[in-house]
Write a structure and sequence with these properties.
Blueprint: E1 2-6, H1 22-30, E2 35-38, H2 47-50, E3 54-58, E4 65-67, E5 70-72, E6 75-79, H3 85-90
Parallel strand pairs: 1-2, 1-3
Antiparallel strand pairs: 3-4, 5-6
Length: about 100
């Protein structure tokens, strides 16, 4: 399963039906939908790993990247379950 976070609606392909709302995105996660595209960056959290999701971020001005536990190509930081992914993203930790 995959969840794709888009920090701009412009990074969403025309063929994808994204979730723009907070509640709709949470419902899709709880239903364990196979592939979710959302603009709700505040839901970027390590709990998604426990739900079985691979986590991808699609920045407006750069190429998409995956965030996973442990070592990542998009950061020098080792990602652990106690990390707040949204705060790390907001602080520009991922490149």
């Amino acid at each position: 399963m995959e969840i794709h976070f888009h920090d701009s609606e412009e990074t969403i392909p025309d063929t994808i039906m994204p979730y723009f709302g907070w509640v709709d995105t949470i419902r899709a996660i709880n239903r364990k939908e196979n592939q979710i595209h959302t603009t709700q960056m505040g839901l970027l959290q390590t709990a998604l790993f426990e739900h079985g999701y691979r986590v991808f971020v699609h920045p407006y001005d750069d190429k998409p990247y995956e965030i996973k536990l442990g070592t990542n190509d998009c950061t020098d930081r080792e990602i652990k379950m106690e990390n707040n992914l949204f705060n790390l993203w907001k602080a520009g930790e991922f490149f």
